[in-house]
TrEMBL record:
<feature type="domain" description="Glyoxalase-like">
    <location>
        <begin position="13"/>
        <end position="81"/>
    </location>
</feature>
<dbReference type="InterPro" id="IPR041581">
    <property type="entry name" value="Glyoxalase_6"/>
</dbReference>
<protein>
    <recommendedName>
        <fullName>Glyoxalase-like domain-containing protein</fullName>
    </recommendedName>
</protein>
<dbReference type="InterPro" id="IPR029068">
    <property type="entry name" value="Glyas_Bleomycin-R_OHBP_Dase"/>
</dbReference>
<dbReference type="Pfam" id="PF18029">
    <property type="entry name" value="Glyoxalase_6"/>
</dbReference>
């Protein structure tokens, strides 16, 4: 799954572009955020951001254990775990 950050004026156009190009359903989730849902496989999102960027997200069976493993391996948790609808 990937989230592409864009400036606000481009988000809606990109969501519609990917929806039309790949046949993905565009699911507006609130101000500045739209999920892109394919018929099969991983989806993505387009969000408002100050600068363009791509963020890769993954799903895991046990979030708490995975966060603990991240820190045990020397990684850093930058944001608290959340359920963002993916």
């Amino acid at each position: 799954m990937a989230a592409q950050g864009t400036g606000r004026r481009y988000r809606e156009g990109l969501a519609q572009f990917y929806g039309a190009l790949l046949g993905w359903q565009v699911d507006e989730r609130g101000p500045g955020y739209a999920l892109l849902r394919p018929a099969q496989g991983p989806g993505g999102a387009v969000v408002d951001a100050e600068e363009a960027r791509v963020t890769i997200g993954v799903t895991v069976d046990d979030l708490a254990a995975t966060v603990e493993l991240v820190t045990a391996l020397g990684g850093q948790v930058l944001l608290p775990p959340i359920d963002d609808g993916w």
